[in-house]
Amino acid sequence: MRKIDELTLSKDLISFPSITPIDAGAIKYLAKKLKSLGFKCKILEFKKGKGKPIKNLYAKIGNKKPNLCYAGHTDVVPPGNFKDWTINPFKPKVKKGYLIGRGANDMKSSIACFISAVSNYLSKNKNFNGSISLLITGDEEGYATNGTKSVVEYLKKKGEKINFCIVGEPTNPKRLGEMIKIGRRGSLTAKLEIFGMQGHIAYPHLSNNPINTLVKICYELKKKKLDKGNKNFQPSNLEFTGIYVDNKAHNVIPASAKTQFNVRYNNLQSSSRLKKRINSVIKKISKRNKCRYKINYMENGEAFLTKPGKNIFLAKKIIKEVTKINPIFSTTGGTSDARFIKRIAPCLEFGLVNKTMHKVDECVSLKDLKNLKKIYYNFLNEYFK
Length: 385
Fold this sequence. Notes:
The protein is α+β, with helices and mostly antiparallel strands. The chain has nine helices and 19 strands. A hairpin with a 7-residue loop joins β1 and β2.
């Protein structure tokens, strides 16, 4: 069986300008590569909401238990201004021991490392005792509606069992081996609009300025801390991401004012509990100020924690052996597709160093590529013993 080189595959994947939600051929290319290793591949397309259908891939080799799954995404964030890059972000190059390109870090190179590790493993273990699968989506950086979430629903309907999953997100802050993610905070986004009464700026008593009410609500929501966190999670936080008033006139009190905010919360909270608390504040202040309001919520995933067990401790041991660093367990950072996968399987997240993700000249160390491949390979070896 032909082995797949992690650097070559990383370059190939980066060459696809798969800016979310555009696939640009990346999923089809991966399916072809995996078929060459003996995987059965199914490209799954989902379309909920506006836009074109999103491509996803579920590939599997073997029919026995246990089923070890790797999850990742081929979509990337926009590169920004090409002129700010030292290279074309979709024509990857190696410079001074680093591979540069959009997706080098988040997270096409991680996918390449796992597939390379699998190709090495299968060349020595054709009749291994279990199954290996890959769940690859093209909708992680966007709304994530037609990606892993939909694939998980599909797998549940089909009765497909995954026993453990490695999500290959870039988890390490500075050095490969520092951090394993075993959970994530939840995310709740809200868009609030306050309705007052438009009027002349010189006659405020004849109008009702919605900005005044909105400012009071913002202050009240930020004034009191949500919680102090716990041993596994940092404190929950509410942050405002925008305040909008559609009013270009300097002498007119506007009819309405809007704000948008996001709550990142730990497992002491829930989306329903938070909404109840937020609604109570808004209702109280709006009523006092004789304003109406409208609020829309978008739930991006509840907080979750995977209790460290045999497989997580195995990963910790292997990472330490390869990198000489003892990784910590963490729940920090933003959301990831692990929030969907945890519905059907226990999982951990471990990938590359994340300090250049989403940045100009996103890059990955060639040494880290080799070591991540080795970590994945050693885990395959130990998992199927």
